[in-house]
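Re-run with default settings, no changes from the original entry. Doing this only to confirm the output is reproducible before filing.
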Amino acid sequence: MQNLQWIQWVYPLAYLVGGFVAGILFKSVALARIKRLVGATLWEGDDIIVEVAGKFSIPLFTIGGLYLAFLHLPIPLKIVPLLQKTLLVLSIFIVTLALAKIAVGLVALYSRKGKGTLPSTSIFTNLARVTVLAIGILVILQSLGISITPILTALGVGGLAVALALQETLSNLFAGLHILVSRQVRPGDYVQLDSGEAGYVTDISWRNTTIRALSNNMIIVPNIKMASTIITNFHHPEQEMSFLVEVGVSYESDLKQVERVTIDVAREVLKEVQGGVPLFEPFIRYHTFADFSINFTVILRAKEFVDQYLIKHEFVKRLHERYQQEKIEIPFPIRTVQMKQT
């Protein structure tokens, strides 16, 4: 009798172990070959699908082995439907998680390859994940025999109340979608708000826009405020930008010589300093007869916003040295006071 009871557990245990081993073999052998085949294709989406399938293949095969094991276990027939539904729900849940990961991966891939059509932000990946998970939950409820029609009706009726309760949250959500769809601000852009905050946009989520300042601090701006404020985008329509350097020389200077020397130094800096645009032709514009100097503006060009700081640094150093060699004076502030005797 004891041997018979022991034998009754051999087949269920064999099915369970067999399912687990089959999952390992499928992942290490079959998926490895498939991965080599899809690696030669131009579409990167199949790589994402194969990678996700490898992560969830062992649990699915194990559930299959567990299902076969239940069929051979000496358990009451009343419990069998409950166990079958439990395994079915667990299988659907695992497949839903896998599909959610695939959807997120494909959205991220399309964001990278879409050349700005779909910015790479967490708002789209989160929407893709939530959508797939919601569909999976509805499928699970339907598989359990629970009608989803009343649930959908209740969600529709309660949607208005939820919208009123989450008005600010929904405003930020739609403001974030508006920012992304308009493509006037994208992750990676250097922006400055009219309130003074400036930095690189790192992410646009369902509620906030995250900006990393040059000091490496994070600035969190609600999407509704981001959509309604005045923004200067230094990366739009292109990253290259011109910037100004103010200079003044004495009234005794030869302005033609000043212009020639200044442009020579500017050309040298743009060609040799990292971040400069070597093909850009710098120029100057005289504009003011000041109290003690003739002032002018030097127009230079950088590849992006932050490059201007190093270019200014090198330009001021080299221009000061060159002016000393050319005997061009940068005057100190002076005042002439005339004393009248009465």
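The chain has three domains: 2-145, 172-233, 241-325. The longest strand covers residues 241-249.
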